[in-house]
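[Automated response] Your request has been received and processed.

Submitted sequence:
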Amino acid sequence: MIQAAPQAVPPSSATPQTAFGKGFVTDAWYFLALSRNVAPASLKRYELMGEPVLLGRTRAGEVYALRDICPHRAAPLSAGRMVEHDGEGETVECPYHGWRFRTDGVCAAIPSLCEGQDVDPNRIKVRSYPVRESQGMVFVWMASDPRNPSAPDHEPPVFPSADSDIRLVEWMDFDSHIDHAVVGLMDPAHGPYVHKQWWWRSEKSMHEKAKTFAPRDFGWAMVRHAPSSNSRLYKILGGAPATEITFRLPGYRWEHIQVGEKQVLALTLLTPVTATKTRITQIFWSDHWVFGLAKPFLRAGVVAFLQQDGGMVNLQNEGLKYDPALLWIDDADKQAKWYQQLKKEWLKSRAEGRAFVNPIKETVLRWKS
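Generated structure:
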Protein backbone atom coordinates (compact mmCIF):
# COMPACT_ATOMS: atom_id res chain seq x y z
CA MET A 1 0.00 0.00 0.00
CA ILE A 2 1.41 3.38 -0.99
CA GLN A 3 0.64 6.33 1.21
CA ALA A 4 0.99 9.96 0.31
CA ALA A 5 3.90 11.64 2.02
CA PRO A 6 2.79 13.95 4.80
CA GLN A 7 3.01 17.63 3.97
CA ALA A 8 5.91 19.34 5.71
CA VAL A 9 4.90 21.85 8.34
CA PRO A 10 7.15 24.92 8.39
CA PRO A 11 8.67 25.94 11.74
CA SER A 12 7.03 28.85 13.50
CA SER A 13 9.93 31.17 12.63
CA ALA A 14 9.49 30.55 8.90
CA THR A 15 7.23 32.72 6.80
CA PRO A 16 5.82 31.55 3.43
CA GLN A 17 5.83 34.39 0.91
CA THR A 18 3.17 34.25 -1.80
CA ALA A 19 2.45 37.88 -2.81
CA PHE A 20 5.99 38.72 -3.81
CA GLY A 21 7.21 40.26 -7.04
CA LYS A 22 3.82 41.68 -8.03
CA GLY A 23 3.91 45.49 -7.93
CA PHE A 24 6.41 48.33 -7.71
CA VAL A 25 7.05 50.96 -5.07
CA THR A 26 5.67 54.20 -6.50
CA ASP A 27 5.90 57.85 -5.45
CA ALA A 28 9.62 57.22 -5.27
CA TRP A 29 12.91 58.19 -6.91
CA TYR A 30 14.70 55.70 -9.16
CA PHE A 31 18.23 55.96 -10.49
CA LEU A 32 18.23 56.17 -14.28
CA ALA A 33 21.66 57.31 -15.47
CA LEU A 34 25.01 58.80 -14.59
CA SER A 35 25.16 62.55 -15.18
CA ARG A 36 28.22 62.13 -17.36
CA ASN A 37 26.23 59.92 -19.74
CA VAL A 38 23.61 62.60 -20.41
CA ALA A 39 25.32 65.03 -22.77
CA PRO A 40 23.95 68.45 -23.82
CA ALA A 41 21.39 68.17 -26.64
CA SER A 42 21.32 64.38 -26.24
CA LEU A 43 18.12 62.31 -26.33
CA LYS A 44 18.40 58.91 -24.64
CA ARG A 45 15.70 56.26 -24.43
CA TYR A 46 15.26 54.21 -21.25
CA GLU A 47 12.59 51.91 -19.90
CA LEU A 48 11.44 52.30 -16.31
CA MET A 49 8.67 50.17 -14.81
CA GLY A 50 7.73 49.18 -18.34
CA GLU A 51 7.34 52.82 -19.41
CA PRO A 52 9.47 54.35 -22.21
CA VAL A 53 11.34 57.37 -20.83
CA LEU A 54 13.27 59.97 -22.81
CA LEU A 55 16.08 61.40 -20.70
CA GLY A 56 17.70 64.50 -22.13
CA ARG A 57 19.74 67.56 -21.34
CA THR A 58 19.32 70.96 -22.95
CA ARG A 59 22.28 72.87 -24.31
CA ALA A 60 21.83 75.13 -21.29
CA GLY A 61 22.45 72.12 -19.01
CA GLU A 62 18.94 71.34 -17.76
CA VAL A 63 18.11 67.64 -17.36
CA TYR A 64 14.53 66.57 -18.12
CA ALA A 65 12.50 63.39 -18.65
CA LEU A 66 9.48 62.81 -20.92
CA ARG A 67 7.37 59.82 -21.86
CA ASP A 68 9.09 58.63 -25.01
CA ILE A 69 5.97 58.45 -27.20
CA CYS A 70 4.75 61.21 -29.49
CA PRO A 71 0.97 61.58 -28.92
CA HIS A 72 0.44 62.08 -32.66
CA ARG A 73 1.53 58.76 -34.19
CA ALA A 74 3.49 57.12 -31.33
CA ALA A 75 6.99 57.58 -32.75
CA PRO A 76 9.75 57.66 -30.08
CA LEU A 77 10.72 61.26 -29.42
CA SER A 78 14.22 60.05 -28.54
CA ALA A 79 14.71 59.26 -32.24
CA GLY A 80 14.31 62.97 -33.02
CA ARG A 81 16.55 65.90 -32.18
CA MET A 82 16.76 69.04 -30.08
CA VAL A 83 16.01 72.22 -32.00
CA GLU A 84 15.61 75.89 -31.16
CA HIS A 85 13.06 78.30 -32.67
CA ASP A 86 12.26 81.89 -31.80
CA GLY A 87 9.85 82.13 -28.90
CA GLU A 88 9.96 78.40 -28.18
CA GLY A 89 13.33 77.88 -26.54
CA GLU A 90 14.90 74.44 -26.82
CA THR A 91 12.43 71.76 -27.87
CA VAL A 92 12.38 68.09 -28.80
CA GLU A 93 11.41 67.56 -32.42
CA CYS A 94 9.58 64.34 -33.31
CA PRO A 95 11.28 62.53 -36.21
CA TYR A 96 7.96 61.62 -37.88
CA HIS A 97 6.13 64.92 -38.49
CA GLY A 98 8.28 67.46 -36.68
CA TRP A 99 5.95 68.18 -33.78
CA ARG A 100 7.99 70.08 -31.18
CA PHE A 101 7.71 69.64 -27.41
CA ARG A 102 9.18 71.77 -24.63
CA THR A 103 11.08 70.03 -21.86
CA ASP A 104 7.99 70.24 -19.62
CA GLY A 105 6.11 68.16 -22.21
CA VAL A 106 3.91 70.93 -23.62
CA CYS A 107 3.65 70.97 -27.42
CA ALA A 108 5.20 74.15 -28.82
CA ALA A 109 4.40 73.70 -32.50
CA ILE A 110 2.78 71.49 -35.15
CA PRO A 111 4.50 72.37 -38.46
CA SER A 112 1.75 70.91 -40.68
CA LEU A 113 -0.93 73.31 -39.36
CA CYS A 114 -2.21 76.00 -41.69
CA GLU A 115 -3.47 79.44 -40.69
CA GLY A 116 -7.00 79.33 -39.38
CA GLN A 117 -7.02 75.65 -38.48
CA ASP A 118 -8.51 75.27 -35.02
CA VAL A 119 -5.82 73.32 -33.17
CA ASP A 120 -4.02 74.78 -30.15
CA PRO A 121 -0.66 72.97 -29.78
CA ASN A 122 -0.32 74.19 -26.17
CA ARG A 123 -3.28 72.00 -25.17
CA ILE A 124 -1.31 68.89 -26.19
CA LYS A 125 1.18 67.50 -23.72
CA VAL A 126 3.54 64.58 -23.35
CA ARG A 127 3.83 63.19 -19.82
CA SER A 128 6.83 64.67 -17.99
CA TYR A 129 8.61 63.21 -15.00
CA PRO A 130 10.25 65.12 -12.13
CA VAL A 131 14.04 64.79 -12.31
CA ARG A 132 16.84 65.40 -9.84
CA GLU A 133 20.55 65.48 -10.54
CA SER A 134 22.64 64.73 -7.45
CA GLN A 135 26.17 63.47 -6.75
CA GLY A 136 26.79 62.70 -10.40
CA MET A 137 23.56 60.71 -10.83
CA VAL A 138 20.15 61.37 -12.40
CA PHE A 139 17.00 60.24 -10.57
CA VAL A 140 13.44 60.11 -11.96
CA TRP A 141 10.25 60.27 -9.86
CA MET A 142 7.68 57.59 -10.64
CA ALA A 143 4.28 58.63 -9.33
CA SER A 144 1.50 56.30 -8.21
CA ASP A 145 -0.90 58.12 -10.56
CA PRO A 146 1.13 59.05 -13.65
CA ARG A 147 -1.81 60.85 -15.29
CA ASN A 148 -2.34 63.10 -12.28
CA PRO A 149 0.98 63.05 -10.43
CA SER A 150 1.57 64.88 -7.20
CA ALA A 151 4.78 66.79 -6.62
CA PRO A 152 7.60 64.82 -4.97
CA ASP A 153 7.40 65.10 -1.18
CA HIS A 154 10.96 63.95 -0.51
CA GLU A 155 14.33 64.05 -2.25
CA PRO A 156 16.61 61.24 -3.50
CA PRO A 157 19.03 59.87 -0.91
CA VAL A 158 22.38 61.55 -0.30
CA PHE A 159 25.17 58.99 -0.07
CA PRO A 160 28.22 59.40 2.17
CA SER A 161 31.56 60.25 0.50
CA ALA A 162 30.01 60.18 -3.00
CA ASP A 163 31.41 63.61 -3.89
CA SER A 164 34.86 62.34 -4.86
CA ASP A 165 35.60 61.00 -8.34
CA ILE A 166 33.80 57.86 -9.45
CA ARG A 167 36.44 55.14 -9.57
CA LEU A 168 34.49 52.23 -11.00
CA VAL A 169 31.10 51.62 -12.65
CA GLU A 170 29.64 48.30 -13.79
CA TRP A 171 26.07 47.30 -14.60
CA MET A 172 24.09 44.26 -15.64
CA ASP A 173 20.45 43.46 -16.42
CA PHE A 174 18.99 40.63 -14.33
CA ASP A 175 15.94 38.69 -15.55
CA SER A 176 14.18 39.36 -12.28
CA HIS A 177 11.50 41.48 -10.66
CA ILE A 178 13.09 44.12 -8.45
CA ASP A 179 11.70 42.38 -5.33
CA HIS A 180 13.79 39.28 -5.97
CA ALA A 181 16.79 41.41 -6.91
CA VAL A 182 16.56 43.30 -3.60
CA VAL A 183 16.25 40.11 -1.56
CA GLY A 184 19.18 38.55 -3.39
CA LEU A 185 21.23 41.68 -2.83
CA MET A 186 20.64 41.75 0.94
CA ASP A 187 20.91 37.97 1.44
CA PRO A 188 23.83 37.34 3.85
CA ALA A 189 24.05 33.55 3.49
CA HIS A 190 24.59 32.88 -0.23
CA GLY A 191 28.20 34.11 -0.44
CA PRO A 192 30.07 30.85 0.25
CA TYR A 193 27.97 29.02 -2.33
CA VAL A 194 27.51 31.57 -5.12
CA HIS A 195 30.69 33.65 -4.79
CA LYS A 196 33.46 31.08 -4.44
CA GLN A 197 36.50 33.21 -5.24
CA TRP A 198 39.69 32.46 -3.33
CA TRP A 199 39.90 36.12 -2.33
CA TRP A 200 36.39 36.27 -0.89
CA ARG A 201 34.89 33.39 1.07
CA SER A 202 34.59 29.64 0.90
CA GLU A 203 32.22 27.08 2.33
CA LYS A 204 35.03 25.87 4.62
CA SER A 205 35.45 29.32 6.14
CA MET A 206 31.84 29.63 7.27
CA HIS A 207 31.27 30.64 10.87
CA GLU A 208 28.55 32.20 12.98
CA LYS A 209 28.08 35.95 12.79
CA ALA A 210 26.09 38.36 14.92
CA LYS A 211 25.43 41.88 13.63
CA THR A 212 23.42 44.78 15.02
CA PHE A 213 20.78 46.30 12.75
CA ALA A 214 18.96 49.59 13.23
CA PRO A 215 16.28 51.56 11.35
CA ARG A 216 17.28 54.29 8.89
CA ASP A 217 15.31 56.61 6.60
CA PHE A 218 12.98 54.35 4.56
CA GLY A 219 15.15 51.34 5.40
CA TRP A 220 17.73 49.90 7.78
CA ALA A 221 21.46 49.53 8.33
CA MET A 222 23.87 46.90 9.57
CA VAL A 223 25.54 49.36 11.92
CA ARG A 224 29.25 50.11 11.67
CA HIS A 225 31.42 47.14 12.55
CA ALA A 226 34.72 45.44 11.76
CA PRO A 227 34.40 43.20 8.66
CA SER A 228 34.24 39.44 9.21
CA SER A 229 37.57 37.67 9.33
CA ASN A 230 36.69 35.45 6.35
CA SER A 231 36.08 38.46 4.08
CA ARG A 232 39.58 38.59 2.62
CA LEU A 233 38.92 41.44 0.21
CA TYR A 234 38.87 43.96 3.04
CA LYS A 235 42.44 43.08 3.99
CA ILE A 236 43.90 44.82 0.94
CA LEU A 237 42.64 48.12 2.36
CA GLY A 238 45.06 47.76 5.26
CA GLY A 239 44.59 49.30 8.70
CA ALA A 240 41.45 48.52 10.65
CA PRO A 241 38.49 49.00 8.29
CA ALA A 242 35.02 49.60 9.72
CA THR A 243 31.97 49.21 7.53
CA GLU A 244 28.28 50.07 7.62
CA ILE A 245 25.82 48.60 5.12
CA THR A 246 22.54 50.41 4.47
CA PHE A 247 19.41 49.58 2.48
CA ARG A 248 16.76 52.14 1.52
CA LEU A 249 13.56 51.90 -0.48
CA PRO A 250 12.91 51.52 -3.33
CA GLY A 251 16.24 49.87 -4.25
CA TYR A 252 19.43 51.41 -2.86
CA ARG A 253 22.13 49.52 -1.04
CA TRP A 254 25.44 51.04 -0.04
CA GLU A 255 28.46 49.98 1.97
CA HIS A 256 30.51 52.78 3.50
CA ILE A 257 33.97 51.69 4.59
CA GLN A 258 36.30 53.86 6.67
CA VAL A 259 40.01 53.07 6.97
CA GLY A 260 41.49 55.83 9.09
CA GLU A 261 40.96 59.02 7.09
CA LYS A 262 40.33 57.14 3.83
CA GLN A 263 36.89 56.09 2.66
CA VAL A 264 35.30 53.67 0.20
CA LEU A 265 31.67 53.80 -0.90
CA ALA A 266 30.24 50.82 -2.78
CA LEU A 267 26.80 51.83 -4.03
CA THR A 268 24.35 49.45 -5.69
CA LEU A 269 21.35 50.95 -7.48
CA LEU A 270 18.40 48.79 -8.59
CA THR A 271 16.29 50.11 -11.44
CA PRO A 272 13.12 48.20 -12.42
CA VAL A 273 13.18 48.13 -16.21
CA THR A 274 10.09 45.91 -16.48
CA ALA A 275 8.30 43.44 -14.20
CA THR A 276 10.80 40.78 -15.28
CA LYS A 277 14.01 42.79 -15.73
CA THR A 278 16.03 44.79 -13.20
CA ARG A 279 19.17 46.78 -13.95
CA ILE A 280 21.88 46.51 -11.30
CA THR A 281 24.38 49.40 -11.35
CA GLN A 282 27.45 49.18 -9.13
CA ILE A 283 29.42 52.38 -8.46
CA PHE A 284 32.54 52.88 -6.34
CA TRP A 285 33.82 56.16 -4.97
CA SER A 286 37.05 56.29 -2.96
CA ASP A 287 40.07 58.37 -2.02
CA HIS A 288 41.97 55.21 -1.03
CA TRP A 289 45.23 54.57 -2.86
CA VAL A 290 44.30 50.93 -3.57
CA PHE A 291 41.84 52.02 -6.28
CA GLY A 292 44.67 53.53 -8.29
CA LEU A 293 46.73 50.34 -8.26
CA ALA A 294 44.20 47.54 -8.17
CA LYS A 295 41.36 48.94 -10.33
CA PRO A 296 41.62 46.22 -13.06
CA PHE A 297 41.44 43.48 -10.42
CA LEU A 298 38.56 45.18 -8.60
CA ARG A 299 36.67 45.55 -11.88
CA ALA A 300 37.17 41.86 -12.62
CA GLY A 301 35.87 41.04 -9.15
CA VAL A 302 32.76 43.19 -9.53
CA VAL A 303 32.01 41.66 -12.94
CA ALA A 304 32.48 38.16 -11.52
CA PHE A 305 30.07 38.90 -8.65
CA LEU A 306 27.42 40.27 -11.03
CA GLN A 307 27.75 37.32 -13.38
CA GLN A 308 27.49 34.83 -10.53
CA ASP A 309 24.42 36.56 -9.10
CA GLY A 310 22.91 36.77 -12.59
CA GLY A 311 23.49 33.06 -13.12
CA MET A 312 21.79 32.26 -9.84
CA VAL A 313 18.84 34.48 -10.81
CA ASN A 314 18.44 32.40 -13.98
CA LEU A 315 18.46 29.22 -11.91
CA GLN A 316 15.95 30.67 -9.46
CA ASN A 317 13.67 31.58 -12.36
CA GLU A 318 13.35 27.89 -13.18
CA GLY A 319 11.45 27.49 -9.93
CA LEU A 320 9.73 30.88 -9.81
CA LYS A 321 7.89 30.25 -13.08
CA TYR A 322 5.69 27.82 -11.10
CA ASP A 323 4.76 30.62 -8.64
CA PRO A 324 5.73 28.68 -5.49
CA ALA A 325 5.40 29.92 -1.92
CA LEU A 326 8.83 30.94 -0.63
CA LEU A 327 9.96 29.86 2.82
CA TRP A 328 11.90 32.55 4.69
CA ILE A 329 13.54 31.79 8.04
CA ASP A 330 14.91 33.85 10.91
CA ASP A 331 17.56 35.23 11.12
CA ALA A 332 19.24 34.78 7.73
CA ASP A 333 16.12 35.89 5.84
CA LYS A 334 15.06 38.61 8.25
CA GLN A 335 16.14 41.36 5.87
CA ALA A 336 13.92 39.87 3.18
CA LYS A 337 11.00 40.06 5.60
CA TRP A 338 11.91 43.65 6.47
CA TYR A 339 11.89 44.61 2.82
CA GLN A 340 8.38 43.27 2.40
CA GLN A 341 7.23 45.04 5.58
CA LEU A 342 8.75 48.31 4.38
CA LYS A 343 7.12 47.98 0.99
CA LYS A 344 3.69 47.27 2.50
CA GLU A 345 3.98 50.21 4.90
CA TRP A 346 5.13 52.50 2.07
CA LEU A 347 2.15 51.64 -0.12
CA LYS A 348 -0.28 51.80 2.81
CA SER A 349 0.98 55.18 4.07
CA ARG A 350 0.70 56.68 0.59
CA ALA A 351 -2.81 55.32 0.13
CA GLU A 352 -3.87 56.73 3.52
CA GLY A 353 -2.15 60.09 3.01
CA ARG A 354 -0.04 59.85 6.15
CA ALA A 355 3.62 59.81 7.10
CA PHE A 356 5.66 56.65 6.59
CA VAL A 357 6.34 54.76 9.85
CA ASN A 358 9.40 52.54 9.76
CA PRO A 359 8.36 49.12 11.17
CA ILE A 360 11.95 48.01 11.85
CA LYS A 361 13.35 48.02 15.39
CA GLU A 362 16.98 47.76 16.46
CA THR A 363 18.00 44.13 16.87
CA VAL A 364 20.85 41.63 16.55
CA LEU A 365 20.69 39.01 13.82
CA ARG A 366 22.71 35.79 13.76
CA TRP A 367 23.55 33.49 10.85
CA LYS A 368 26.36 31.40 9.43
CA SER A 369 28.23 32.37 6.29
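Summary generated for your ticket: The first strand starts at residue 15 and ends at 17. Residues 211 and 365 are 6 Å apart (CA to CA).
If you did not submit this request, please reply to this message.
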